[in-house]
Design a protein that fits this description.
The chain has nine helices and 13 strands. By secondary structure, the protein is an alpha/beta fold. It has one domain: 3-Layer(aba) Sandwich (Rossmann fold). Strands 3-9-7-6-10-11-13-12 form an eight-stranded mixed sheet, with helices on both faces. Strand 12 and strand 13 form a beta hairpin. The protein is globular and about 50 Å long. Keywords: Cytoplasm, Methyltransferase, Nucleus, S-adenosyl-L-methionine, Transferase. Its EC number is 2.1.1.85. One of its GO terms (cellular component) is cytoplasm.
Length: about 350
Amino acid sequence: MSQSFSFGFGSDDIEENGGEMADVGPLSLHDTRENKPVAVTEPKLHKLQDLLSALPSKISYRTVQIRSPAGILNVPRRELFDIRAQLMAEDEISDQSSPVVGLSTDDITPNVYEGGFKTWECAVDLAGHLFGSLSKGWELGGRVVHVVEVGAGTALPILVFFDFFLKQLSPSWRAVHLSVADYNLSVLANATLPNLLLTWYFVQSPAIPEPAGDLEITPDLLSRFVKDLSDKVIHISGISGTWNEAFTDLLLPVEDPQRRSRIETIFLASETIYSPNSIHAFTQVLLKALKSAEETHGHGRALVAAKKIYFGVGGGVDEFLKVLNELGGKGATAWESKDEGVGRVIVEVQSAGGNAAKR
């Protein structure tokens, strides 16, 4: 069965239209509670080369404006219509009887598809907050920096970090690790990774790329991408699958080979607490990862962007903070929207023994 819930999202997919976000109606969630149980996808680690192999010969993109008091950052993002066109083409040549993830009319189907092909409002909020913090001189204390985005989807928040790392001429860190996690491998391959490639292309291009257009994916382009990452000691990996203990173990594989200085680990998440059914699992993963980062790798911090309430479903910030406190964590508001409509916030999360980070 399928039910349509109004989550209070500002849009179906964020589109630039004179700076305004088009409201195209409530988000549709496919409710599977009365259907047969759906087998969850177990967590799996994916190397960069494996994700690159799924890229088509050309992708269409459009930039999204990330705004903060520091200015505007134009972040390229693969067009949703282009993703769907690739999925439909793959569906036509596939001999699988099950529908391709992301092609149904529902935005979210629990344990099947979690909406990762679209860009949601709170992801833009978190990206803007990060852009402003980095522009003001956010102190990254570790010699090795590890940024993780859980429920990455189109990955705007981690793209802001990636853009920042690529532009540093004399970085203070020895290495950077970017881990992008989404329930669906298809989302990682068709949205997350293309957006990382587009961000790199925009930064290294000698001429300013058009705000919308096509990028030819050639072997030479991919070779230059991989080499530049290697030269800058930036490592990218993906994680697909459900939130459980095995997922947490995959989040923190990073070690400092010289073991002489701490690792700075930053966890990012947006629109991940819309359902009460998944808040507990998400919070457990987050707190365990934070604790592990603090005990083993040096220091961890986390930022979670969300609506105050997701109408018709029951999730939201209050429910998240309740579960967070029950599990021994702490949360404080790092940012709050001032505009009308459903409130949006960014919560800074600490484990029981964590300290607020400098920014």
